[in-house]
């Protein structure tokens, strides 16, 4: 007998029915399509994000890193190691992280929570008056997988910087998996700044060959594009420990540019 339910339905686990006081009844997912994207708080625009399409935006080596991460996710999950997706605006970072979140739920049944850092600051400010802000932060600190989308592009008051660094630091200490997308570069991915001064440990993770038209200055990023400038080197070095970097070049866009 095949089940009628949706395999990724959290209510029935794919059985197609749930038990109530009055007995078994058909699960909601039999009638309506269970929306995994919505369930994981992914923005509507990315509900259809598909892990198989991700190869469009990554070069072969980076893709292998990502697939290796997904394959060994259980190990990384135990160690609290997430991903840091870095690249220019509009290259597909949010798409990738949405696809990863959907994949991890389907494969491992681990529920992630997508948050946009800009929206989060508004939500926190609104709920601050009702003293609901600390509850929100508490739940964000605890979720098994947390996405902080577009880190660095929020309006960064001292108050919000403290909240974000505190949240990241808690997740680091608790060994919780965090996924970050950003178009600011952590200094450990950059050889030197445009001013020519060496930064951090000066580790060049990115080879010259990997630099695309869309990502021209990875070895020479201007100082104001450094994540360190916004959050301080202490937090950034923590991110370096708790995430694997995925540099998104946006291959499609690059090809378009070549054609033009
Ligand atoms: Zn169901």
From the structure above, extract its key features.
260 residues; alpha/beta; Rossmann fold; 2 domains; five-stranded parallel sheet; two-stranded antiparallel ribbon; binds zinc ion
How would you describe this protein?
This protein is α/β, with parallel strands linked by helices. It has two domains: 1-34, no CATH class; 35-259, 3-Layer(aba) Sandwich (Rossmann fold), CATH 3.40.50. It is 41% helix and 15% strand. It is built from ten helices and nine strands. The chain has helices at 28-31, 36-39, 60-71, 73-79, 93-108, 117-128, 133-142, 158-173, 227-242, 251-259, and strands at 17-20, 23-26, 82-86, 112-116, 145-149, 177-182, 192-193, 220-221, 243-247. The strands form three sheets. The chain has a five-stranded parallel sheet, sandwiched between helices. A two-stranded antiparallel sheet has the order 1-2. It has a two-stranded parallel ribbon with strand order 7-8. The longest helix has 16 residues, at 93-108. It is globular. Residues 192-217 and 253-260 have low confidence and may be disordered. Bound molecules: zinc ion. Zinc ion binds next to loops.
Lay out the secondary structure.
Layout: E1 17-20, E2 23-26, H1 28-31, H2 36-39, H3 60-71, H4 73-79, E3 82-86, H5 93-108, E4 112-116, H6 117-128, H7 133-142, E5 145-149, H8 158-173, E6 177-182, E7 192-193, E8 220-221, H9 227-242, E9 243-247, H10 251-259
Parallel strand pairs: 3-6, 3-9, 4-5, 5-6, 7-8
Antiparallel strand pairs: 1-2
Instruction: Please report which band the strand proportion falls in: under 5%, 5-15%, 15-25%, 25-35%, 35-45% or over 45%.
Output: 5-15%
What is the total tally of β strands?
9
* Order of SSEs: EEHHHHEHEHHEHEEEHEH
Give the count of structural domains.
2
CATH homology superfamily of the largest domain: P-loop containing nucleotide triphosphate hydrolases
- Continuous helix count: 10
Helix percentage? 40-55%
Question: According to CATH, what is the topology of the largest domain?
Answer: Rossmann fold
The backbone outline, from C-alpha atoms, is globular
Supply the helix-strand structural class. Answer: alpha/beta
CATH architecture of the largest domain, by name, is: 3-Layer(aba) Sandwich
Main sheet characteristics: 5 strands, parallel
Return the average pLDDT rounded to an integer: 81
């Amino acid at each position: 007998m095949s089940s009628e339910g949706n395999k990724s339905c959290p209510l029935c686990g794919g059985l197609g029915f749930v038990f109530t006081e009055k007995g078994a009844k058909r699960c909601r997912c039999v009638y309506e399509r269970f929306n995994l994207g919505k369930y994981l708080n992914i923005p509507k625009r990315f509900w259809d994000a598909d892990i198989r399409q991700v190869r469009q935006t990554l070069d072969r080596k980076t893709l292998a890193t990502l697939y290796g991460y997904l394959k060994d996710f259980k190990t990384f999950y135990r160690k609290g190691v997430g991903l840091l997706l870095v690249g220019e605006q509009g290259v597909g970072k949010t798409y990738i992280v949405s696809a990863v979140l959907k994949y991890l739920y389907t494969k491992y049944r681990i529920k992630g929570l997508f948050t946009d850092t800009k929206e989060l600051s508004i939500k926190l400010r609104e709920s601050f008056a009702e003293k609901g802000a600390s509850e929100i932060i508490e739940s964000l600190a605890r979720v098994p997988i947390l996405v902080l989308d577009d880190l660095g592009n929020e309006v960064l008051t001292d108050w919000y910087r403290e909240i974000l660094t505190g949240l990241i630091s808690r997740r680091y200490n608790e060994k919780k998996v965090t996924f970050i997308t950003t178009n600011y570069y952590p200094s450990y991915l950059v050889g030197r700044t445009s001013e020519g001064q060496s930064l951090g440990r000066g580790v060049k993770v990115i080879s010259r060959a990997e630099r695309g038209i869309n990502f021209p200055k990875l070895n020479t990023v201007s100082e104001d594009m450094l994540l360190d400038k916004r959050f301080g080197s202490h937090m950034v070095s923590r991110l370096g420990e708790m995430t694997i970097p995925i540099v998104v070049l946006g291959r499609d866009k690059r090809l378009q540019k070549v054609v033009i």
